[in-house]
Design brief:
Elements: H1 2-7, H2 18-28, E1 32-36, E2 42-46, E3 50-56, H3 60-74, E4 77-83, H4 87-104, E5 107-111, H5 118-121
């Protein structure tokens, strides 16, 4: 029983860092990561069409403002990739995001730990 306390992730632990999801997805979609704007903010992923913000599902509301700001600065469409590490729990956040994204024409994608290509993350 004591051993199980050490192998179970805490409530705030994640399978991967946000940056790992971002790098994996952005590479697969021919984007550039961490594109710096003149005001020193950084777009998580910039493609030919979209300025994209990545966030864990519980930060869905923050992702809206950032994606719209990056789209405004670049002239690209707003996009959000929501990280769904626990789909049963995270689905409520995704539904909230969809309701706003539809109104403001924000493209939404999801990514899960299963979507990550392990070999790409650990290549040196």
């Amino acid at each position: 029983m004591l051993l199980s306390l050490f192998i179970q992730p805490s409530a705030t632990a994640h399978y991967y860092l946000e940056k790992e999801y971002q790098n994996n997805w952005c590479k697969a979609n021919n984007g550039r990561t961490e594109v710096r704007l003149s005001d020193k903010t950084r777009i998580d992923c910039l493609t030919d069409t979209y300025a994209i913000e990545f966030d864990f599902a519980n930060k869905w509301a923050e992702s809206i403002g950032q994606s719209l700001y990056y789209a405004n600065c670049t002239g690209k469409k707003a996009g959000i990739v929501i990280i769904m590490e626990n789909p049963q729990k995270d689905n409520k956040y995704l539904n909230r995001l969809y309701s706003v994204a539809q109104k403001y024409n924000i493209k939404v994608w999801t990514i899960t730990p299963e979507d990550i290509c392990i070999s790409d993350i650990y290549k040196k």
